[in-house]
Amino acid sequence: MTSRFGFIPIHSQLMKNEEAFNKIAGSYIKNFERKGGESWTKENLKNPKPLFYMLVTGGTEELLLNLRNERNKHIQNEPVIILAHPTHNSLPASLEVLARLQQDNEKGRIFYLNGPNDKNGFSKIERTLRDLEVWFALKRMRIGMVGTPSDWLVASNPDLTTLQETWGPTVLPISMDEVKKSLQSINTKSIKTILESLSNSADEVQELLWTDLEENVKVYNALKQLIEGHKLDAVTVRCFDLVLDYKITGCFALAQLNDEGMIAGCEGDLVSTVGMIWTHEMLGQIPWMANPVQWNDDSNTIWLAHCTVPISIVKKYTLRSHFESGIGVGIQGTFSNGPVTLLRIGGVKMDKIWIAEGEIIQAGKAEDLCRTQAEVKLNNGTIRDLLQAPLGNHLILVKGHHLKQLTDWWKIFIDK
Hints:
Radius of gyration: 25 Å
Distance between the termini: 37 Å
Shape: elongated
Strand content: 15-25%
Number of strands: 18
């Protein structure tokens, strides 16, 4: 079985022999191995998988710090996860070494196992392992930035090095010319199946000719070619250039890519795209990027709207024109009422967050807003907080209530 993580049992030089070591740590080690763990030594520290440090005895603080320094040469900024148990001064050693790590501005956490059969303790470790796997997945990701961020994203145009340092992904700038070149090579036959599915599954098609649908579905194929050619894990597109230069939109293309699990953000908004990637990795859910367009302070409600939405997360949809331009294809999806989580990341270092839980209470079809519309009533957090210290013009919506899970991850990996 391929291992999911490594763990290093650390003991003092006073340990008498292997028999004494196994008496203390053997049962813990067997449980770690059952959960996909592999016992590591210093030689394994280059391995890009999550690592736990088990302090078998006291007197191990300096040994852990030395291992941490070596690990940091290969895997930077990984939180130090320390496993403590009830005997042989494991806990006091854990407290001392975490105090030192925090003095050095390093992140870490102690998990206390009240014995080798501590189901609750091992359950917490399992959740943290999953959080670490998300962190490592983000570090491996390649985001294609197709064109530059839209001109109006004056607070959502992060330094690419800062983005990588804070969140992990590598960003590859890609010229819009590559998309335009691919568009010219795509023929109608290659899009027939997906075109028919899009049209036949829609509740209604308004304002559009069949040729409008054909030209806009070609954008999806063009982006697929680009994603495969550059080996991308996600993409964000300066999509309004398609409107201006080709009189088509990327609304369907981005919706379809998201439906396939390939996160695709609008308008070259890298910050929101990272938020979408994060929630998708954490929750396994397809997110929706949208503009907050109206709010009511008394009822603590907010309307969200955008001209694209992943079709799989709405109960029905109508194919419309793009709202701002009146051309191309926009998607007017209808959300079901139910629990949701809203969030926005931002700040110069992308280390700030606004997050709240709420309920979709109705969908809308107003003609003076982007096509897909949903009103959300917040259960915690307030719209006023968002207005007084905004982080940007887009919010991310995911179904369900996930504030604690997302906030816990944030505190370990991002919060300074």
